[in-house]
Amino acid sequence: MSLTTTRNDILAHIAGVADRPSKKILLTGEPGIGKSTVLDRAAIDFTAAGFVVLRATPSYAERRTVYSTLWDLISELGRASLEELPAEYRSFLEVALGQKQPSAEVPSLATSIALESLLVHASSNAPVALLIDDLQWADPESIAAIGRAFRRTTTRPVHLVATSRDYDRSGEGAPLDFDASDVYALAGLTVEELEAVAQPAWPTTLTRSQVVALHEHTGGNPMWALEIIARGQLGSLGALAIGMVRAPDSLASAVAGRLLTLSPDAREVVSIVALLGHPPFELLSTVLGFGEIADGAIGEAEAAGFLRATTRSVRTRHPLQASAAVSRLTPSRRRELHRFIAQAIDDPVVRAQHLEQSQPEGPDETIAQALAKAAVVTRQRGARLRAAHFAAQAVNRTDPLSAPFQTRLLTQAQHLFSAGDLASALDTLDRVSPYRLDVGQYDVYLALCTSALHSSRGHTATHEFLRAQIEEIGDDTIRRAIVRANALEDDLMPVHVRAKVSALSFAVLEGVGAPNAVHRALRGAIRAQIDAGHGLNAELIATSTERQGVQIVVGLDDTGLARTAFLSHLIDDVDASRAALVELVEWAEREGKEGIARTFLMYSALAELVAGDAVTARRFAQQAGFSATSADIPPTVLPILGLLLVTGAEYDALERLLSTWESSEAGSGIYRDLEIPTLRGLSALARRDWASAVAHLRGAADRADSLGLVEPGSRFRVDAPLIEALFHLGEVEEARRRLDVLRAFLDEHERPITRIAVHRLTSLERAASGDLEGALAAATESIDAAVAVGRSVDEALGLLQRSRVMVRLRKVTLARRDLEAAHALAGMSGDRDVLARIAFAMESSRRPKSPTQLTAAEQRVLDCLREGHANKEIAARLFVSIRTVESHVASILRKTGQPSRSKLITRG
């Protein structure tokens, strides 16, 4: 029996072949499983380790060509190596390789001795590795020569690694007398490895469930998996029994050849077991009785390595064997067996699988009903994508003109959406005829369409779809209310409009039987209240959760729990977001909803960014599997990735992401209008490009104002960085005005994270007006507030600001201590953006000041001069005295060497 092993394990065994007593390894496995790939990697590793690598790749066509394998093996050595051998040995090898006509018959023993001499010579300076791929095709003469020569060189550093298709056999499966401990059966790719191979070959994103189904049907065989993808068969894969997917002829023929060595009854047993999947002996005996096959044939098939039996059941050893065994049956015989099995089995899922295969394609209501029932049962068992596959088969078996057709299409789309396959869900929904749906069905249809469109194609596509719906339904009040409720997902809807539409939709739809639209109306009201600065309405969330019944089709991301998770951090309640997201991630993983679980993990990353913990945020993002280069980034995840790049100081990568984002369908709505300019502004602020930062952030803030967004979190937290950039640019009046608005909000609302920022911005404001003691006190307040809530990154920013004030107060030593403490805290938080800002300040503090270098205050005065302001205007603008401005102007003239104020302006 071969020892089944993974690629990494077998590579480790191969690397240690020199330490094995036998110095040999035979790697077995089905065709297409990747044995050649492993041998290629071994050749690279051996070469890197200084081995002389001799390779042979026997082929089916060469198996009857004498010494063809030997010819391949020693061709790498070249003529020079042969010249080193004694003339007699060289002559033997030349005859064996066809390079010389023999004067008399050369015994095979002589060729073996000659090969032995060649290996001894080759291994005198470096170890030798003989690598033979597809040993099953090697010619007997080469095998005999290599086998004897290898046995005679056991004291030399000569090693052998071979691959072969055959396994669990003595004799032809082990032609070089491999010991059982030297034979390893290569396992298929793991689910993760198969996903890495399959994703680039598939035009859309594979869900985890699809990859798992692909793995089950192929046994992890990469060649077969790619063949299935090329055929476009993934749509029904999860609803098919193992063995129902035809293997490529190049793979199946190898197994079919081995099947021919069995008796007819044993071959039939393998085929029936393949059809049944994993039958208990009782069921198998019933089916064998129907086929008039003796039970003894089971033992023959098991002894030949095709079946694996336990005390209760039996199954084929590999999906490839199952596929090959089913393929040998005629279509009529296969359908006959499927019909009998469907009658003999009770499980509704397995029964539906066999009914589906028992009749030619085409509408059949009996089969459609069985498949629809199987979809329900499979969904209840937690296999969402498989439920979608059964639902798809039920649709295909339903007459398009019959009453159940539209319902089954909606059910299929619902299963696909729930499994995270949004593209397939939308394709299915395109086949639905909305005018044939009743109100309840139309409610489901709208909820699925808008959710899938918004998640995959963004704002514009969703908006256009809903506008088309309004035009089609005319004066139907209820359906118009359903459309309006779904339109509440429009992130560019002003807050007061969302509040009004939510109330109107709820009033029309209450009691109508449109639960999805009612739920969305409640969601709209919850969001409108929070955006308007009224906080998170717990009572409304409780009502929303109560309304979340079995008819709500979109998933747990629509529940009140999700509202808490997604919205609490907007009002600085990070702990509530964290707790809800932990529950949501656990639920999604338990339910197998991988796509939704990944989104929840990214929201967990966002909550940690708001909490100031960039290290934990990156860990969640890594768990989610998204990066700036991912091809399947949902629109809701894009701004989170952007923030991660900002905190990682990856500004070039951020710009590439934003540029790609803008050119995609997803780059619309609130993303384009608010979040893209905010991210660009944050990037410019970090790079000390104050003018660009102000331009981008001001545009984002103005858009937030136009939408009526009051809550700082809802505004993508744009105000604090904008005010900071304005102070640095010298736009003190605008900065002070915006800061007053933020203060007024905090007078009526408790937002601890925002309050820390306001203390720090107040320090900037007072420093700009010359009140350095007041600036020092405000900076210290921001530090104390950050310490109180355990926010190291805000504490670091507060220390940075206080150090700047300290420098202006000539307290250089204290300023340096603050900078060092800020640097350590920023490092702990993992915010590389803040760390870079502090590092710049530390470097600047060490840099000798040029006698001609302008101070920050002088630079602000110079900027005002170049704008044409008089001294009195500059004093008012910068909140300083006229005498202070005159002093700064004199210093600027001295440092720049300009003779007059007018020259200073004209040479600006």
Automatic annotation (TrEMBL):
Signal peptide limits: none
InterPro entries for the chain: AAA_16, P-loop_NTPase, Sig_transdc_resp-reg_C-effctor, Tscrpt_reg_LuxR_C, WH-like_DNA-bd_sf
Domain of life of the organism encoding this protein: Bacteria
Keyword terms of this UniProt record: ATP-binding, DNA-binding, Nucleotide-binding
GO molecular function terms noted in the UniProt entry: DNA binding
Domain HTH luxR-type: start-end pairs: 847-908
Family matches, as Pfam families: AAA_16, GerE
Protein name per Swiss-Prot or TrEMBL: DNA-binding CsgD family transcriptional regulator
Species name: Conyzicola nivalis
Lineage: Bacteria, Bacillati, Actinomycetota, Actinomycetes, Micrococcales
